[in-house]
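Entry 14. Two folds queued back to back today. First construct below, sequence then structure tokens.
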Amino acid sequence: MIPHNRPTLGENEQEAVARVLSSGWIAQGPEVEAFEAEVCAYLGLGSGHAVALSSGTAALFMALWVLDSKGKRVAIPVYSCAAVRNAVIMAGGEPVPIDVAEDSPNIDLEQAVRASVDVIIAAHMFGVPKRWCDKFTSIPVIEDCAQAFGARIDGRQVGVNGTVGVFSFYATKMLTSGGQGGMLVSVDRSLVDAVRDYRQFDSRRDRLPRFNLQMTDLQAAVGRTQLSRIDVFVRKRREIHARYCAAGLSLWPATSLPGIEPCYYRAIIRVADPASAIARLEQNSVRAIVPIADWELLQEVEKSPRAGALARSTVSIPIYPSLSAHEIAAVIETARTPDQPAEMKPS
């Protein structure tokens, strides 16, 4: 069976872990500091503008905390994972679910503004970034890049276009720090410093409440190794995506907007019957999933018709750097003729 997703790990990651183990220091330390600095350099940020955390969810929670979201209305993408809603609730905010934009898996920013929210969480779903206009600068935007590390908007890396950017380094994300891990970044150094202070929970004389959301040096060492190969990972995903398109697979979104450089965390095909498409793929040893099912939406389907249409007519097929040429050919052969509708409309 060709897995739907799997991490791209090898000898370099093993050597990085061995190096940390032999050092005798495995908790948060010099590897974490180096990882933060290298992420800043990759994103084009100044030194000290990133803080490593225990997970992407922790990074999102801290973004909400540092933006003082308690008691405020926070626009969340209804087409996203439950961690987004949970983080808002944990931070004391009021989640305001917003449907996806037309012909996009990303949040409808205009609808979010009309909802009179105080903070917007804009997730770049499937690694296909969303651009926003100057009109949104009056509302703090948390750029959720959990699926989009390595993607660009107008030549700029994602994560630096909003008030705060958050990343996930879960096992199967664009890069992993060994299973869990996250990062918060911002062009505003004061926000990052506040989060770093919160993370440093122990031996503090001021008695202010803090919490242990630290990344370990073991995780950071794996993350640093993965980061050194992120451009290779992104290029491989783009090559696989191009092969799928050339083979006639009905990938969605079909094209990218000018200035948008996706990293293709997911390869999404449009189908009339996701269950039968997945069953046929699995009969041919290809694992596929519904990326977000209707019951997983962060609002009732009838209140979010566009997201509901996506949930009922999309399937995610394998696209990750460790796919072999043989596996890519097998996915193409199996997915080439699904029953795909001519267009996707809310029902």
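Second construct, same run, same settings:
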Amino acid sequence: MHKATILTALAESLSSEAASTVLPQEIACLEVRADLTGDPPIDQLRRKFKGQLLYTLRSRAERGADLLSAADRSERLRAAANHYDLIALEAHRDLTPELLATVPPEQRLITWHGSAGDLSELENRFATCAQVPARFYRVVPTATRPGEALLPLLLLKSLRRADVISFSYGAVGF
């Protein structure tokens, strides 16, 4: 039986008050949303948080705030790979040979955010992501109707893999 992992996200700049806060031991992974926070001082994060650090630079295309050029984006992801335990790589823009050579499979979290009309389409999205070796895969469809909110659960059930994260996003997502 697999145990659930608690992940939390840092989605705003690290204030001096927040920097002095130690996160609870139950949180296993802290996702740093660098598209929202910039690049916080890694040494501060490591002192206050003993779990794994995930670096995410989510693009506008995947509901983030990153507007960097492909070259600048790649440079920031490569730099983060020297300091973070996991690096989120977007399936549609980050899987270049140069970047994959810098970020080893055990450090990769391949992500996809978008719309999927049914389970078959979602399985195909995952299959595309899974062509690249990674430690984890995150598939997040947008739910606009109540039935779509269940698609990630159906995906997880059909795949039966411990390396897949899936949930729905949007007004009716969970």
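Quick look at the second one. The first helix runs from residue 16 to 19. The beta strands are 6-10, 27-33, 52-56, 86-90, 108-114, 136-141, 164-166.
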